[in-house]
């Protein structure tokens, strides 16, 4: 028997759940792209986007996914042969490093493994050893390992080393979920995409940048017409903001999501994600007691992101649970990414529970309850009390 009929819940770390308000905002005829209401709407979107990243500086909007924002940032930051220091705490950090290398940047990777955050002391040492490094790239929350990095501490390391490197941060997973303060933390470049905390379909990406980054970019020779942020930031003609036709319906969706974010407030949004994340952690802590095959990927809660949680159940239980919750209970959970080679048995031990964007207590508690149901159905031994531990966190948080 299946109990999956009813509203399906896609609990993967992007695309995230889209609010009906956002979906409905797109259900309309295309607007005039040459003048009028669309232009006014975009004029309002720009300052609101800056608020979400907590910056008073610049923003460029791209038509593309997170990978496009990676390339845009790289193109504007570097000339061929320039040096980059990339701090890697999982699959996505490696991806950004590889993109930079393929574009002709001289990339040095500092790898901190799959369970621990960036160590600022190692960043400082690497920068002291090479003052020619032009930028430090770091992932705020690596969606694969769900390691959360201390961005302000990386800025501290750059300054302590006497380096004038730019600080670029991938906030694709974390924006709108984990506290992020671009200007206060001294970040020069922030990248994000529409389909995660911003609750909009995949297809838009964003690069916020400091005045210092804008000045440096003027000599970067990796810029091409598509990635160059000069006119996206300050278009002479409306179409230059998007390098062509505006992504009209994504913009309607984004306008609505930014309204929803403003209505709830950033502090309240961060607090909601914090409580939901802690409820997930509490469930796994209880399930893992006496069952070492079950556990959270990141041991120290201080280093865990609040948009998504990477977990292990021991192979083949991770994949078996995912299949069960999708087919029997209407909840799709995330695959384990970058934790083991997909061709090996170990791969099937990992998965991820997303709690990013338009999610509330009953959704997260429901996802956890379906995981426990799957463990019962599949005879996977686990500690008792996971659901009540999660419910207790929600009860106290609310
Ligand atoms: C999702 C994600 C990406 C990739 O974004 P795409 O839209 O899939 O290209 C990169 N970095 C992080 C941290 C992400 O969460």
Order of helices and strands: EHHEHEHEHEHEEEHHHHEEHEEHH
Question: Which structural category fits the helices and strands?
Answer: alpha/beta
**What percent of residues are in strands?**
15-25%
- Which stretches of 5+ consecutive residues score pLDDT under 50? none
- Looking at the overall shape, the CATH architecture of the largest domain is 3-Layer(aba) Sandwich
Radius of gyration: 21 Å
User: Fraction of residues in helices?
Assistant: 25-40%
Supply the CATH class of the largest domain: Alpha Beta
Mean pLDDT comes to 98
How can the largest sheet be summarized?
7 strands, mixed
Report strand order across the widest sheet: 2-8-7-6-5-3-4
Shape: globular
Question: The CATH topology of the largest domain is what?
Answer: Aspartate Aminotransferase, domain 2
The CATH H-level homologous superfamily of the largest domain? Type I PLP-dependent aspartate aminotransferase-like (Major domain)
Tally of alpha and pi helices: 13
Ends apart, CA distance between termini: 35 Å
Tally of domains: 2
User: Total number of β-strand segments?
Assistant: 12
Report on this structure.
- α12 packs antiparallel against α13 (386-397).
- A 7-stranded mixed sheet has the order 2-8-7-6-5-3-4, sandwiched between helices. The protein has a 5-stranded mixed sheet with strand order 1-11-12-10-9.
- It is 40% helix and 15% strand.
- The protein starts with 8 loop residues before the first strand and ends with a helix.
- With 398 residues, it is an alpha/beta fold.
- The site of pyridoxal-5'-phosphate has 13 residues, from α3.
């Amino acid at each position: 028997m299946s109990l999956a009929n009813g509203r399906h819940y896609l609990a993967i770390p992007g695309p995230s759940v889209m609010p009906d308000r956002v979906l409905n905002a797109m259900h309309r005829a295309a607007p005039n792209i040459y003048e009028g209401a669309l232009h006014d709407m975009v004029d309002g979107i720009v300052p609101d986007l800056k608020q979400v990243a907590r910056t008073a500086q610049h923003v460029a909007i791209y038509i593309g996914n997170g990978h496009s924002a990676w390339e845009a940032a790289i193109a504007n930051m570097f000339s061929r042969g320039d040096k980059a220091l990339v701090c890697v705490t999982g699959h996505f950090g490696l991806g950004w490093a590889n993109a930079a290398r393929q574009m002709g940047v001289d990339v040095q990777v500092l790898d901190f493994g799959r369970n621990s955050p960036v160590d600022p002391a190692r960043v400082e040492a690497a920068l002291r050893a090479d003052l020619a490094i032009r930028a430090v790239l770091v992932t705020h929350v690596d969606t694969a390992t769900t390691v959360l990095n201390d961005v302000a501490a990386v800025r501290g390391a750059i300054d302590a080393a006497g380096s004038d490197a730019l600080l670029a941060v991938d906030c694709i997973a974390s924006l709108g979920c984990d506290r992020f303060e671009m200007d206060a933390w001294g970040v020069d470049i922030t990248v994000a995409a529409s389909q995660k905390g911003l609750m909009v379909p995949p297809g838009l990406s964003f690069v916020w940048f400091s005045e210092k980054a804008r000045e440096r970019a003027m000599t970067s020779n990796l810029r091409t017409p598509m990635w160059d942020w000069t006119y996206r930031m300050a278009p002479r003609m409306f179409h230059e903001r998007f390098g062509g036709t505006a992504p009209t319906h994504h913009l309607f969706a984004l306008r609505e999501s930014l309204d929803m974010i403003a209505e709830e407030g950033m502090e309240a949004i961060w607090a909601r994600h914090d409580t939901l994340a802690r409820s997930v952690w509490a469930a796994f802590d209880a399930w893992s007691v006496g069952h070492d095959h079950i556990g959270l990927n990141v041991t120290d809660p201080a280093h865990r992101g609040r948009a998504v949680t990477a977990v292990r159940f021991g192979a083949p239980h991770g994949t078996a649970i995912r299949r069960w919750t999708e087919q029997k209970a209407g909840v799709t959970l995330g695959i384990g990414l970058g934790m083991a080679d997909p061709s090996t048995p170990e791969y099937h031990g990992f998965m991820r529970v997303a709690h990013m964007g338009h999610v509330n207590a009953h959704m997260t508690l429901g996802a956890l309850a379906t995981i426990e149901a799957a463990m019962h159905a599949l005879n996977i031994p686990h500690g008792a009390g996971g659901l009540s531990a999660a419910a207790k966190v929600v009860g106290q948080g609310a």
